[in-house]
Amino acid sequence: MNVCLLNDSFPPVIDGVANVVMNYAKIMQEDGLADVLVGTPEYPDTDYSKYPYKVIPYQSFDTTKIIKGYRAGNPLDFNEIDDMADFKPDIIHSHCPVASTVLARILRAKTDVPLVFTYHTKFDIDIAKAVKAKFIQHETIKALVNNVEACDEVWVVSQGAGENLKSLGFEGDYHVVNNGVDFAKGRVDEKEVAEVVKDYDLPPSVPVFMFVGRIIKYKGIPLIFESLAKLAAKGQDFRMVLIGSGPDEEELKNLAREYGFLDGDGSKPGKCIFVGPIYDRDKLRAWNTRADLFLFPSTYDTNGIVVREAAACGLASVLISGSCAAEGITHGRNGYLIEENAESFAALLEDACSNLDKVHQVGQCAMDEIYISWKDSVYAAHQRYGEIIELKKSGRLSDKKPMLMDRFLDFAQDLADGTEQVFELPKKLFDEVREDAGELIDRFRY
């Protein structure tokens, strides 16, 4: 089986979806399940030859100042699309509804193979943050939903993610395909843990709470601080460790100072510890082992891989009842569920601090019951790939009705081919035409 994976993010930019794509590609290639090709926007001075699978970077534009380090891909880079078609994929899997899926639809037209899309992120929230005009928000969401509906099969990472997609106007069916984690199951040796955390003020008798992820307000970090302030007002000591970085980091540090969790310049230990991003997975496992409770009051995340990473180390999580991250959690058994308010949160934390042994037992149940490895996840996805391919071969895969975008993409492809082959324009001029088209697509996206 030849598998083509497409995503708008890939190293040197690492985020949750890039991590998914890398695990899919690595496991399928190294375990002999498939030959894999990854298509992604190109970043300058990046070595794409070091991976155990093929990576084809395509033309991109510098939008890093607009979207916090991300470049925008040009999905009309027909030279690279031709190279992807030469790979002869049996199936295409897009992980982003923007440039990747536009490019995927062109590639599908050239290869006549099935196209799968996975919905990872509540993009309506990101659009609302980036665009203030309601009309533009609505039309942008509508365009992206149409892009998703054009795919042959749609996967979601949780039932809640599927319902969110439906709420945006998606009218098709979806399959829940859970993501895994690349942590081995089990706690890290105490000596290794002590070495990793030795430079931080973590008294043995003081409860340690932890958050891992982007340091951004909509992950629920302000609610964490508000709840901890109520806990501190009752005389309970604690340490709150935040691992990661993000656009709201300075604002949230200032909020921590207002609550008295940090001193003015950060030179003295406080109840809040901003560790920064940790890319060493063994060190991150050590932090998950050292903590007593994982705090993740996010209603934005569709899956919450960090919750299962914590579970891999026997660390229980506190989650918002009804959130996507809370799927599979039974309160008091393999995790904790709260209402989305500081009173409910603080009451849970106060109770946890009075009985950490019980909290650790819940963490052990989380390890036993909600942990899923990446290998299990990828093997399940690969099995479904085979089923989809057979449906296509047998003619039982539902044909998608041609959309206006399909006609536009066909026209763009014909125009590109005709420009080169019939009129034989110099390549430099052709590249300029493609760049102008890419800028138009980029303006539409952002």
CATH class of the largest domain: Alpha Beta
Taking all residues together, what is the mean pLDDT?
88
**CATH topology annotation of the largest domain:** Rossmann fold
Percent of residues in helical segments? 40-55%
Give the spatial strand order of the biggest sheet: 3-2-1-6-7-8-9
Helical segment count:
16
List the helices and strands and how they pair.
Layout: E1 2-6, H1 16-30, E2 35-41, E3 54-58, E4 60-61, E5 72-73, H2 78-86, E6 91-94, H3 99-111, E7 115-119, H4 123-130, H5 134-149, E8 153-156, H6 159-167, E9 175-176, H7 190-197, E10 208-212, H8 221-233, E11 239-243, H9 249-258, E12 272-276, H10 281-290, E13 293-296, H11 305-312, E14 317-320, E15 336-338, H12 342-353, H13 356-369, H14 374-393, H15 404-421, H16 427-445
Parallel strand pairs: 1-2, 1-6, 2-3, 6-7, 7-8, 8-9, 10-11, 10-13, 11-12, 13-14, 14-15
Antiparallel strand pairs: 4-5
